[in-house]
UniProtKB/TrEMBL annotation, chain A:
Essential cofactor(s): [2Fe-2S] cluster
UniProt cross-references to Gene3D superfamilies, sorted A to Z: Glutaredoxin, NADH-quinone oxidoreductase subunit E
Database matches in InterPro entries: NuoE-like, NuoE_dom, NuoE_N, Thioredoxin-like_sf
SUPFAM superfamilies, per the entry: Thioredoxin-like
Name of protein: NADH-quinone oxidoreductase subunit E
Residue sites binding [2Fe-2S] cluster per the record: 81, 86, 122, 126
Family: Belongs to the complex I 24 kDa subunit family.
Gene Ontology MF term list: 2 iron, 2 sulfur cluster binding; metal ion binding; NADH dehydrogenase activity
Iron found in the keyword field: yes
Organism name: Rhodopseudomonas rhenobacensis
Organism lineage string: Bacteria, Pseudomonadati, Pseudomonadota, Alphaproteobacteria, Hyphomicrobiales
UniProt KW keywords: 2Fe-2S, Iron, Iron-sulfur, Metal-binding
Cofactor note: Binds 1 [2Fe-2S] cluster.
Sections of the chain in a coiled coil: none
Automatic annotation (TrEMBL), chain B:
Database matches in SMART domains: Molybdop_Fe4S4, NADH-G_4Fe-4S_3
GO molecular function terms listed in the Swiss-Prot or TrEMBL record: 2 iron, 2 sulfur cluster binding; 4 iron, 4 sulfur cluster binding; metal ion binding; NADH dehydrogenase (ubiquinone) activity; NADH dehydrogenase activity; quinone binding
Record has DNA-binding as a keyword: no
A single Gene Ontology CC term: membrane
Sections of the chain in a coiled coil: none
Protein name, UniProt field: NADH-quinone oxidoreductase subunit G
NCBIfam families associated with the record: NuoG
Lineage of the organism: Bacteria, Pseudomonadati, Pseudomonadota, Alphaproteobacteria, Hyphomicrobiales
UniProtKB/TrEMBL annotation, chain C:
GO molecular function terms attached to this record: 4 iron, 4 sulfur cluster binding; FMN binding; metal ion binding; NADH dehydrogenase (ubiquinone) activity
Organism superkingdom: Bacteria
Coiled coil: none
Record's keyword terms, sorted: 4Fe-4S, Iron, Iron-sulfur, Metal-binding
Functional note: NDH-1 shuttles electrons from NADH, via FMN and iron-sulfur (Fe-S) centers, to quinones in the respiratory chain. The immediate electron acceptor for the enzyme in this species is believed to be ubiquinone. Couples the redox reaction to proton translocation (for every two electrons transferred, four hydrogen ions are translocated across the cytoplasmic membrane), and thus conserves the redox energy in a proton gradient.
Name of the protein described by the UniProt record: NADH-quinone oxidoreductase subunit F
Cofactor dependence: FMN; [4Fe-4S] cluster
Iron-sulfur keyword on record: yes
Family assignment from sequence similarity: Belongs to the complex I 51 kDa subunit family.
Keyword match Iron-sulfur: yes
One Pfam family here: Complex1_51K
Length: 157, 871, 428
């Protein structure tokens, strides 16, 4: 599977707007991820080729940043905050509840491919703690409760 | 400007602004470190080099700083011994050990490991971390290097060397926090031809020499000898290490003016040809193995009947001299084409005449404008290419200095330099690995390169020239230290003359590098002699009946037709070689001789520097040094290397400098002879000492002041040219070299080894001989060199061969179309089928056909070849 | 004149204003006035006089920083100069810049333009953390609007001053907020801190003179320029000028963002946030995010500005007050932070890369009741070694060890109790 012409064009544009191929590497990774859900080895190599950088160089960034996914993720990615404020407001109970409900741990994807659960550091949602970011737009949800996980996983489950 | 600082009570003069760690190390003060490196500068990552500094006499408390990140300023007081600083250094080791495997017993590095040395030095010896270790998966990085990531301590030296210093792009740092990983994006061969240096740059056992790992011996069980790389004209200095009579590995031997800290992979792995199955070990007559006696008798008979001698640019000066002595100067021929013999002699003449100074590698790095005419440096003289990568950074360094950035803060210099590059112009026929650092790359055929060079010279002299040439002339004229690089690899004397003309126009500020094809091409040229065509003609003219060929696969160096004529005209062909070659196989009498690692001798490099190599392995009786073999055949009465050198300089007084390449065998240090073996440490060596292991009772070495045993001098007691290792108390890795440098990156204590034979201006330059017209039809032939292939010796190294690309045949697509040839076509060159299929290369110059040299084609003078589709 | 100049105009649903609407509310008046009336030097002087301190955590005087930039830039010659806006906000407990970027993008843009004019920057790059997608959308739109209105680009409002502005979207990683790492991130290098000197003003983004300022810092600038340094000074309850965005979170009834005069005591802020949750008692609070030392009951009256909090033994940091009640186990709380900092270490320097994960594991063991006295000794060792900064490459590690240090000091008994396998305060 190759990248769509739109993504390819957007990567090229990023090189213009960001001050060169190197400076655009992260933006390219984000574009690939926005289009494909995650950054596969093949797409990584393709993005590198479009920018004229080496695969190692772009992967060096991809593996540094925690929000670039280098392996497949579910349709909905839940980034659950494990910061102190959320913990103080009952974050662990929400964590346990969602893990139980989905039957997965951090870094895992449900067998049906619907959800991936990832723990992340403080997401700046301490006023709505416990909080999480959900979906491709990183929608901030909270305060979460262990009894009602609709904000996290919708009504479907 | 120099400053005075006080280090634990000692007053020290330092260069203002140098980093404290360098100052300490060059004054023999031990401060542990990891990420700092003499050529890579300071990074501040490992935090191992902590010391306490007091800003002045009134500062009683001071503070802990990283010495590598702290400039030496006047009046600074430093305490390395400070208890808090020493404790911090021990804790840094404790942190590094959190995840480091305790695998020293099975780790190649153990015994010469910087991490081990630093651990012992800081005194950390108790494990308190009680949780699980983080583990990594390793990669297959190809045939040359091992990868064992769990041993990594994240000093970032590998990426700083590989990427920042050597320009490689397929190795990088991945991940973050305590999960940083150094490797490739995926398994695969490390692309850079300098990758081998990782084995020495890495302070632990992550990257190691794979060949050595597979044929492993502990450092303290190996003997090492100072040697010279036999694989190109640069003449990098090597340590060659052996155990049980078998060479196991080659390492860099620091030379301040030449290779510094780094080798290319050809130099590191090529010398392993001496352990190849292609070694020639049993005397032969007409292809059948015979006794040594019979073969020698046959050879003597051939000589008595009258023989010419054909020397070799890969044999030592002494071996070539012995051959010349045996057959007489008028019957001595260079084992290369006539054209090459002439061209290299002309190179010698130009180098001697001046006005350009011959640039050492460290001088190349300090030049501020460079024009390369015709040489594909990465493949022809790789270590020079690595230097040019540093030259390119000159403009960046200048801007950073202007902004007040310390020169050792390498990363900061890169940023502050705003990407500026010193002007480097490449005029070459084929895409060049240095294109990424060149300010201008011109793809031209060899004659156009020469014409372009002439135009630059004309412009410099104020004459009319095309714009491009004028621009470059202006850049060269405006620079302080311009450098012109050219050489023999395209076989075009025109190019060398053009380079000489530019240098003449630039005057004494100019630097020049003229690259000859091989490790001892210049040495051979100094002995005189025409090429193989002339040799064949001599036989045909009955000057003599027979021929002796010295260490030479002539088919690689001279036209096949000429070599065939030689065989046809000679009654008896006698070949001496350490390798089986087509010549040795076809010879009537073939005698094995020692390889470079089993004998001592002298090579003369591109600078005209005579450099001595010594035997790493005790020579076998069946394979004496060539010059000994020739002496036995009647060349002279030389029992030692010093004796033959004495005769050589008596015959040719202008070569008197050769004596100074290294101290002679009579040299004796405080502890007598110099030991090749490290200090006796293992049980095995206890046996040796008791004399129970007969193989371990070494014979004396008449050709050097080195002993094959353990007893004797080593380390700091030893003259620079005779170093067998950086033996220092408590330091066992390559990092100990700082103890042997006058200053970091500077010359070795007592002066860098080798003797420069040429003084610029000591010969007048005769006018250039008229160029032979390039007759015929078809494109000009461009020989393609390859760093991993080299000549017959390099290809005999299994490690290097594993990296060698398939032979190539390139045409520009438009030229191919005009010839009716498509990609992958089978092609005939001058009516002979070429083994490589056609590759279309849009970046190739027009009007040339580029073909891998060595296997497919011999080197030779510039010529046209008829290219046509194979029938 | 509002008492909440920074947030007063935000719409309740955080919907950012469209350009026209924003102009009606007085938006860009400060810029228009400044381009007409003030030289860059004069702007620097106004901000200097206002006493504005950087809101990114360190509290460095903004006017001084700008002056240093102007000075250092002299040596750099012709070429681009940069202002980087630090919108990485990843310090645990901090959520102030989020509102400023999401709901009030034009205010930030105007502040950045004024700052760029003052320091002589030719391009502004706003780095926004990945979690703040709404902020990125709002800023992108606002930049476009400002461009269409002729407020960005060449020769703005006929003043001769020209400026480009763009976003750089990050993708996680706390260290990106460290100013030299942020510069590396924008260059496309691994966002690893760089040694100072050279300072960004000397050799910053792509080696050019660069200033890095926090979002809140810059958001205050239009108001200072419009209303004067004296007005700004008077907003504050202490010598340090202005209002401050305080984030109150943790065990309070209504965690929230509060804009209050600089120097408002934590006690008042906690009251404004509805007091301690469920009527419990305060155990401790961190006044300025995860990397600040704990304060307790006795410190509730300390004016929350840089100087006073420092005097009380902690630091104002980002003004993110994290509240622990008497049922919050400090060992667990510190452990959370430790895991965060260990995970967010860039991996460059040894003490942080290999020390922090060890610290986190020690705290985990202690929290779980598997700890030993040696574990506590080792925590002390890490505290001591990380203590005076300069031993790790950047300030991340020293920050990370701050709550550990203060926790061991203040809650030694609770740590000791954990050695016996039980927690005297924890809820469960
Ligand atoms: C580890 C670390 C993380 C930081 N993160 C941020 C951040 O997210 N946002 C921020 O504005 N400053 C952050 N800073 C401070 C910046 O380095 C810098 O001081 C600040 O952006 C300057 O802006 P100011 O002068 O307006 O405060 C961080 C510092 C460190 C050491
Ligand atoms: S303290 Fe060291 S490892 Fe930690 S974030 Fe800073 S530079 Fe990176
Ligand atoms: S050598 Fe100084 S920090 Fe690594």
């Amino acid at each position: 599977m190759t990248l769509s012409p739109q993504t390819t064009q957007a990567i090229r544009n990023a090189a213009d707007s960001h001050g060169g191929a190197k400076a655009a590497m992260l933006e390219a990774l984000k574009l690939v991820q926005a289009a494909e859900g995650y950054v596969s080895d093949a797409h990584l190599a393709e993005a590198a080729a479009k920018l004229g950088v080496s695969t190692a160089e772009i992967d060096s960034l991809a593996t540094f940043y925690s929000h670039i996914f280098r392996s497949p993720v579910g349709e909905t990615v839940i980034l659950l905050c494990d910061g102190l404020s959320c913990y103080l407001c009952g974050g662990d109970a929400v964590r346990d509840a969602v893990m139980q409900k989905l039957g997965i741990g951090f870094g895992e994807t449900t067998p049906d491919g619907k959800f991936t659960l990832i723990n992340v550091c403080c997401i700046g949602g301490c006023d709505v703690a416990p909080a999480a970011l959900v979906g491709p737009d990183r929608k901030l949800v909270g305060p979460l409760s262990a009894d009602d996980l609709t904000q996290l996983i919708g009504g479907g489950r | 400007m120099s400053v005075r600082i006080e280090i634990d009570g000692r007053i020290i003069e330092a260069k203002a602004g140098d980093d404290l760690l360098s100052v300490c190390l060059s004054h023999g003060i031990d401060v542990p470190y990891f990420c700092w490196h003499g050529a890579l500068g300071s990074l501040g990552a490992c935090r191992q080099c902590a010391v306490r500094v007091y800003s002045g006499p009134d500062d009683a408390t001071g503070k802990i700083v990283m010495s590598c990140m702290t400039p030496a300023t006047d009046g600074l007081r430093v305490s390395v011994a400070d208890p808090e600083a020493s404790n911090f250094r021990a804790r840094v080791i404790e942190w590094l050990m959190v995840n480091h495997p305790h695998d020293c017993p099975v780790c190649e590095e153990a015994g010469s490991c910087h991490l081990q040395d630093m651990t012992v030095a800081t005194g950390h010896n108790e494990r308190r971390y009680r949780f699980d270790k983080r583990t990594h998966r390793n990669q297959d990085l190809g045939p040359l290097l091992t990868h064992e990531m769990n041993r990594c301590i994240a000093c970032y030296r590998c990426t700083r060397f590989y990427r920042d210093y050597a320009g490689g792009r397929d190795l990088d740092a991945f991940g973050a926090h305590d999960n940083v990983y150094f490797g490739r994006a995926e398994d695969g061969v490390l692309e850079s031809p300098f990758a081998g240096n990782l084995a020495e740059v890495c302070p632990t056992g992550v990257f190691n020499d794979k060949g050595w790992s597979h044929d492993y011996a502990r450092k303290w069980d190996m003997r090492a000898a100072p040697s010279i790389c036999p694989h190109c004209a640069v003449g990098c200095n090597l340590f060659v290490s052996e155990r049980d009579g078998r060479v196991r590995r080659v390492q860099n031997r620091y030379h301040g003016a030449l290779n510094g800290y780094f080798l290319c992979d050809r130099g590191r792995f090529g010398p392993l040809h001496v352990v190849s199955p292609q070694r020639f070990t049993a005397p032969q007559i007409a292809g059948a193995v015979v006794s040594e006696h019979d073969a020698v008798v046959a050879a003597r008979a051939a000589i008595e009947q009258g023989a010419i001698g054909i020397g070799s640019p890969r044999a030592s000066l002494e071996a070539n001299y012995a051959l010349r002595k045996l057959v007489g100067a008028e019957r001595f021929f260079a084992g290369v084409s006539d054209a090459e013999a002439k061209l290299v002699r002309r190179i010698v003449e130009i180098l001697r005449a001046g006005p350009g100074q011959i640039a050492t590698l460290s001088e190349i790095e300090a030049c501020d404008a460079v024009l390369v005419l015709g040489e594909d440096l990465t493949n022809v003289a790789p270590r020079i290419a690595l230097s040019l990568r540093q030259t390119a950074r000159g403009a960046e360094r200048a801007l950073a200095t202007q902004k007040g950035v310390a020169h050792w803060l390498d990363q900061a210099v890169r940023t502050a330099g705003e990407g500026r590059r010193s002007p480097i112009v490449l005029a070459t026929p084929a895409p060049d690995a240095l294109d990424d650092v060149a300010s201008l790359s011109l793809r031209l055929d060899p004659l156009s390169i020469a014409a372009f060079g002439d135009a630059v010279a004309t412009a410099l002299a104020g004459g009319d020239a095309p714009n491009k040439a004028v621009n470059i002339a202006n850049v060269l004229a405006a620079s302080e230290r311009p450098l012109i690089i050219a050489g023999a690899s395209l076989g075009a004397a025109q190019i060398v003359e053009a380079a000489a003309a530019i240098v003449a126009a630039l005057g004494t500020k100019a630097r020049i590098v003229l690259i000859a094809p091989e490790a001892n091409s210049l040495g051979l040229a100094l002995l005189g002699g025409d090429g193989v065509e002339a040799a064949a003609a001599a036989l045909e003219a009955d000057v003599a009946r027979n021929v002796i060929v010295l260490e030479n696969e002539l088919f690689e160096r001279a036209p096949r037709g000429a070599v065939d004529r030689l065989f046809a005209a000679a009654t008896t062909v006698v070949a001496l070689d350490a390798l089986t070659t087509e010549i040795s196989a076809r010879a009537d009498v073939a005698l094995p001789v020692a390889a470079f690692s089993e004998s001592a001798g002298t090579f003369v490099n591109y600078e005209g520097r005579a450099q001595r190599f010594f035997a790493a392995v005790q020579p076998q009786e069946y394979a004496p040094a060539s010059w000994r073999r020739l002496a036995a055949l009647g060349a002279g009465d030389w029992a030692t290397l010093d004796a033959i050198i004495k005769d050589l300089i008596a015959d040719q007084p202008e070569l008197v400098g050769v004596v100074g390449a290294a101290p002679d065998a009579s040299c004796s240090c405080a502890h007598g002879k110099i030991a090749r073996a490290p200090r006796p440490l293992s049980a095995h060596t206890a046996d040796d000492r008791a004399g129970r292991d007969p193989a371990a009772t070494p014979k004396p070495d008449p050709d050097s002041p080195l002993s094959f045993g353990m007893e004797g001098a080593r380390g700091a007691d030893v003259p620079a040219a005779l170093l067998t290792g950086y033996e220092t108390h408590g330091l066992h890795s390559a990092n100990a070299v700082t103890r042997f440098e006058e200053e970091i990156g500077g010359p070795l204590r007592g002066g860098d080894p080798g003797a420069r034979l040429f003084k610029q201006g000591d010969a007048a330059l005769s006018p250039a001989a008229p160029f032979a017209p390039i007759d015929g039809h078809g494109p000009l032939l461009v020989p393609l060199d390859d760093v991993f292939s080299g000549s017959e010796t390099g290809r005999a190294s299994a490690l290097l061969a594993a990296r060698a690309p398939a032979p190539r045949l390139l045409l520009h697509p438009d030229d191919a179309a005009a010839l009716g040839l498509a990609e992958c076509a089978s092609v005939m060159l001058d009516g002979v089928a070429c083994a490589a299929p056609l590759t279309l290369e849009p970046k190739l110059a027009r009007g040339v056909v580029a073909v891998s040299v060595g296997k497919l084609l011999p080197r030779g003078p510039l010529r046209r070849v008829v290219v046509e589709a194979a029938r | 004149m509002s008492e909440t100049p920074l947030t007063g105009r935000a719409q309740p649903d955080r919907e950012p204003h469209r350009f026209a609407e924003w102009q009606r509310l007085g938006g860009y008046d400060a810029l228009r006035g400044a381009l007409k009336r003030h030289s860059p030097e004069a702007l620097v002087a106004i901000v200097e006089a206002s006493g504005l301190r950087g809101r990114g955590g360190a509290g460095f005087l903004t006017g001084t920083k700008w002056r240093l930039m102007r000075k250092a830039a002299e040596a750099a010659g012709e070429g681009p100069r940069y202002l980087c806006v630090n919108g990485d906000e990843m310090e645990p407990g901090s959520f102030k810049d989020r509102l400023l970027m999401e709901a009030l993008p034009h205010q930030l843009i105007e502040g950045a333009m004024l700052a760029a004019y003052a320091v002589g920057a030719t391009e502004v790059i706003i780095l926004v953390r990945d979690a703040y997608r709404a902020a990125a959308v709002a800023l992108t739109r606002a930049i476009t609007e400002a461009e269409s209105a002729g407020l960005l680009g060449r020769n703005i409002l006929g003043s001769g001053f020209g400026l480009k502005m763009r976003l750089h979207a990050s993708a996680g990683r706390y260290i990106v907020g460290e100013e030299t790492a942020l510069i590396a991130a924008i260059e496309g290098e691994r966002p690893v801190p760089r040694h100072r000197p050279p300072y960004p003003a000397q050799s910053g983004l792509w080696g050019r003179p660069t200033t890095v300022n926090n979002v809140e810092t810059l958001s205050a600038v239009p108001h200072i320029v419009q209303n004067g340094a004296e007005w700004f000074q008077k907003l504050s309850r202490t010598e340090e000028g202005g209002t401050k965005l305080y984030g109150i979170s943790g065990r309070v009834n209504r965690p929230q963002l509060i804009e209050a005069p600089m120097g408002t005591p934590a006690g008042e802020l906690i009251e404004m946030a509805g007091g301690i949750r469920d009527g419990r008692k305060l155990l401790a609070f961190q006044p300025g995010g995860g990397a600040t030392a704990f304060l307790q009951e006795a410190d509730l009256d300390v004016p929350m500005d840089f100087a006073h909090v420092k005097k009380a033994g902690s630091s104002l940091g980002t003004g993110a007050v994290i509240v622990l009640d008497d049922q919050s186990c400090p060992v667990a709380a510190i452990g959370r932070h430790a895991r965060f900092y260990a995970r967010e270490s860039c991996g460059l320097c040894t003490p942080c890369r290999d020390g922090l994960p060890w610290v986190a594991k020690l705290l985990d063991a202690l929290e779980a009741g598997h700890g030993t006295q040696q574990d506590i000794d080792l925590l002390h060792m890490h505290v001591e070694l990380a203590g005076p900064s300069g031993r790790s490459f950047c300030d991340l590690m020293a920050g990370a060890m701050t709550p550990v240090k203060s926790g061991l000091e203040r809650f030694g008994d609770i740590f000791a109790a954990h050695l016996k396998g039980h927690c005297p305060v924890g809820r469960s």
